[in-house]
Every structure is written in structure tokens, then in C-alpha cells.
Write a structure and sequence with these properties.
alpha/beta, Helix Hairpins, Rossmann fold, Alpha-Beta Plaits, 10 strands, 15% strand
């Protein structure tokens, strides 16, 4: 009795559309076999009986096979009474499952199963611009958006929406953080600057705790949390307050429409910054000599990165050494 009860419980745990599918298949196979045994002249093979059962239960009714005897018609009546309602329930369950799946996707409740994707945390105008840029530069790249404030997915191609708090492990697991390529954390626009930066640090700790090798880019709104972001393992710290103020001040000093130039810094426009390890051919050369060589390759040398130190537009006589990295503006 206990074993029977266990079997029933396991059966009831299956999704309803799986159970209905099995029942429909059993009805078709059993009645198809029975009708071929009862009326062998009208249904020469078992397959003919199964074909008739499928056509009859689905209410299509081609009429190519019809029972001729009273027993055969009685069997057909039983199959119709037993099968038609179940088949209707079968298609209804499939439709319900499809609609439920669609709603779950829109509501951000479907786990992402891809790999080598970019996890974008926080939805705002900056995030939207980043998505558009990434889709232009790398259209094949999958993006997983994690946000707690959105009610439903923004429905952008190659963007998989996960609704939830990115501090929680369950949310990050849904985003398949263990197989992600990188994560970008934007500042929470619904909080003040101090609270937004503290939230960013907590999210960073959660990401690095689950995937220590994940490349993380974080946006900070204040200077106070810079050291904490470094300690938490941020690979890149974007101080948006400094970038914005520098651009505004440069525009004021130039007084000649620098804002149109800033728009060209978008990777989607075809131009982008790159940090590349120095080749053997550049070792020992001056900044001036390396600049000429790179110009022939349609790249502009902006500066040199030496360890943690970055020199932008150094003196022309600045000598490039091994282990330096070149900061270039290219397309």
C-alpha cells in the first residue's frame, strides 16, 4: 500500500501536460490495437488502427477508416467518450504552459542557461545606451539584465531579464553568474549618492563571492567608496561624477561644440578605446615614434599604461619599455 501511494505521489509530481500526454498516447495505442483485432478486415494493421484512433480522438474525422460492426462502433464510442475530453485538456494544458512560460519570461522569472554573457545590473538610460552600443559592436553577445524596479522585461533582442535583488544568491544563480563573462553594475538611480554606492559595493561583494574570476565594472557616484570597491575586487571603477564634470568643464573651456565629439566616443559609432600589450617592435621606441607607426594603422596613440600608473599624452621623448600597455583610439 505504501509503495502504491509513493507511486501515485511521484506520478502527481509530474507536470500536468506530461501526464495528459502519456494518457492520450495510451488511449490511442490501446484502442488502435483493439480495433485492429476486432475488425481486421477494415483495419488490416495495427498502424491503421492507431491512425484511426488519432484522427477520431482529435475530432478531425477523415472517414478513411470506419468501424463496421456493432462491437467496433461501441469501442469507438468508448474511445470518443474517454479520449475527446482528455485531448481537449491536453491542448488546453499546452496552451496554458506556453502562456505561463511567456508570462514568466516577461516577469523576469525564467533562469538564463547561456554562457559567456554580460550581466548588466540596474536599468536606466545609461544601461539602455550600453545595451545599444554592445549590440552594435558585438551583436552576438547575450546580455542578462538584473533589475528589481522593472515590472516586466524591456523586450530588447538578446537581452534576458531577471527580476530580483542582485545581492541575493538566488537572483544571481538565475542569471547564471557562474558562467558569465563580465558584470557591469550601474549606480541605483532611485537612491541618494551615498546609499547608491554602498549598494554597489554589496552587489560587487555578492558577485565576487560567487564567481571570484568574474570581470566586474562598477559605477561610483562619490569618492568615499573607491577604496572599498577596490578591496571588494572591482576590476574597473568608473567615477561618473568625475567623467561628467571633466566633460562639462572641457566643453566650457573649448566653447566650440565638444559635445558632438563626445558622441563619437560611443563604440557603436565605430570608434573605441583599446588597451593593448606592447609589441616587440615598440619596445625602446619613443612615444612620438610609436604614434607615427600606429597612425599608419589608423590608430591614435593616446597614452601609456605602466602598471597602475597611466600617462595620457606623455612627452614625445617618453620611452616605451617591456610590459607597458598602449592606450589607443581606433576603429
Amino acid at each position: 500500500m505504501a509503495r502504491s501511494n509513493r507511486t501515485i505521489i511521484q506520478w502527481l509530481r509530474w507536470p500536468i501536460h506530461y501526464r495528459i500526454t502519456i494518457i492520450v498516447l495510451l488511449i490511442i495505442l490501446v484502442f488502435g490495437e483493439i480495433i485492429s483485432l476486432v475488425e481486421p478486415q477494415e483495419f488490416p494493421t495495427t498502424f491503421d488502427g492507431i491512425w484511426w484512433a488519432v484522427v477520431t480522438v482529435s475530432t478531425v474525422g477523415f472517414g478513411d477508416y470506419v468501424p463496421q460492426t456493432y462491437i467496433g462502433r461501441g469501442i469507438a464510442m468508448l474511445m470518443i467518450l474517454a479520449g475527446a475530453s482528455i485531448v481537449t485538456a491536453y491542448f488546453a494544458s499546452i496552451s496554458s504552459a506556453a502562456i505561463k512560460r511567456q508570462h514568466s519570461y516577461l516577469e523576469g522569472d525564467v533562469t538564463f542557461t547561456g554562457k559567456n554573457h554580460v550581466v548588466l545590473i540596474g536599468w536606466n538610460e545609461k544601461a539602455k545606451e550600453m545595451v545599444e552600443s554592445l549590440q552594435t559592436v558585438k551583436p552576438y553577445k547575450q546580455i542578462v539584465l538584473i533589475d528589481e524596479s522593472l515590472k516586466e522585461s524591456p523586450l530588447i533582442e538578446n537581452v534576458h531579464f531577471i527580476k530580483g535583488n542582485p545581492i541575493h544568491d538566488q537572483t544571481l544563480l538565475k542569471a547564471n553568474i557562474l558562467n558569465a563573462d563580465a558584470a557591469i553594475i550601474t549606480a541605483d538611480q532611485h537612491k541618494n549618492e551615498q546609499d547608491a554606492d554602498m549598494t554597489t559595493i554589496l552587489i560587487l561583494l555578492s558577485l565576487k563571492g560567487m564567481n571570484p574570476h568574474l570581470y566586474c565594472v562598477v559605477e561610483l557616484l562619490t569618492e568615499q567608496q573607491t577604496n572599498n570597491a577596490s578591496r571588494a575586487g572591482a576590476d574597473e571603477i568608473i567615477k561618473s561624477y568625475k567623467l561628467t564634470s571633466h566633460f562639462i568643464m572641457s566643453s566650457y573651456l573649448a566653447k566650440n561644440g565638444l559635445s558632438t565629439f563626445y558622441s563619437e566616443l560611443n563604440p557603436a559609432s565605430g570608434n573605441m578605446f583599446q588597451v593593448i600589450p606592447v609589441d616587440e617592435q615598440f619596445i625602446g621606441k619613443t612615444f612620438k615614434e610609436a604614434s607615427y607607426d600606429l597612425l599608419e594603422k589608423e590608430s591614435i596613440l593616446i597614452g601609456i599604461k605602466r602598471g597602475k600608473e597611466t600617462k595620457v599624452n606623455p612627452p614625445l621623448s617618453f620611452e616605451i619599455i617591456r610590459h607597458d600597455c598602449l592606450i589607443v583610439f581606433t576603429h
